Amino acid sequence: MRVLLLHPARNDTIDRLIRLPPLGLACVGGALRAAGHEVRVIDAAVEPRWEARLGEVLSAWRPRAVGISASTAVLKHALDLAVRTKEADPGTTVVLGGVHATLFPGEVLREGGIDLAVHGEGEQTAVELLAAVARSEPLHSIAGIAFRDGSGPRVNGKRPPIPNLDDLPLPAYDLLPMGLYSTPFSATGPVTSMVTSRGCPYPCTFCDAFVVHGRTYRAHSPERVVTEIRHLVDEFGIREVLFKDSEFTLDRRRVEGFCDIMTRGGPRVTWTCSARVNCVDGPLLRKMAAAGCRVIQFGVESADPAVLDALKKGITLEKVREAFRSTRAAGIETVANLMVGSPGETWGSIEATRRFIREIRPDHLNVQVLVPYPGTELHRTLQGQRLVNAEEARRRRRTLLRAFYLRPGRIFGRVFTLNPQHWRQNAAAAAEMLGIGTR
User: Fold this and answer.
1) How wide is the angle at C-alpha 160 spanned by C-alphas 155 and 166, nearest 5°?
2) Residue 314, domain extent
3) pTM, whole model, 2 decimals?
4) Which of 187, 197, 339, 391 could lock 219 by a disulfide, CB 3.0 to 4.6 Å apart?
């Protein structure tokens, strides 16, 4: 069966600053291709002519099924893609997957253009679903889907998480426009991202990382991770890998095993990852640096202990200090991830955070406005109430960003053009994010 997979665009500052492959679609594409399907992918977030290409693929290649992955943030664009697909060929089966379909599998079937929804991890479900569609078989026994029957939307039970991630085929990176991906934090191109683990056991109230993959932590073996990196280097000339795991260092023995393989003769790449401040120490960080780790992102969120407690972060400011000291001593750059608009936050919290960032001296700063995503504890607690208005949140964000970047030695021209491939886009997006030219 011919299957087209679509990645909607956000069309905002995030898309212009951070351009990384849709790994979920790549994983599903790899599984479908291994099952014998013909698969193509269109990434509307980075492909400049994606609309023209979509029209050509729908009219000339004529896929029998189209899969669209969507978070709540890009739902409108995803639904527009579904309608466009149906207009080209009403007989095409359109499937919605991703975070939003996992949270609201029955509701999305009430939207025009959506025939089926996949909730939870998609690889095994997609293979089983399309096999049934190809043979026009009943769908009642397929776990992890929602479909329409005579009485309305029907949501089948959840599919258990995939226990051994090494059993999955490699993501279908070759179906993606690999030369178009970059980030301002990547030192050189070509760059791509990988996910080497699934599931997050931490109870942070704002995070939706567990929605699709659950709370149970599962991970690829060190050997499989290195195999995938070697594939990326050999086939696409990748020089830097961004590990998008929620917490790369959760399993210390796995990280040490990976670093040992990389140090003994693994592919020559640099890499970055995210880590909790209480999951790293000097010996581990030195081993990571020797294996090619260049940057670590830490979730600091705020320097107000009351805010951290409200978010259920489970970290202390002293642990943050210690992690940044040890990471700097190991020769690894740091990114401090902050959020504004958290429960209990005041301008006093912002000032304390500004001073704290000067103290811990990260190399880069990332500040986001807190969004109470559906499925999170924060969303349930707020029940539609806003923490702060949008303009107030933007003011707090700009305050922290400007205090960090617009000072001698840190001017944004240096920071946001680290990757020379897309310096104009990076600079323009950085100016927008910092509010240059606005009050």
Assistant:
1) 135
2) 182-434
3) 0.91
4) 197
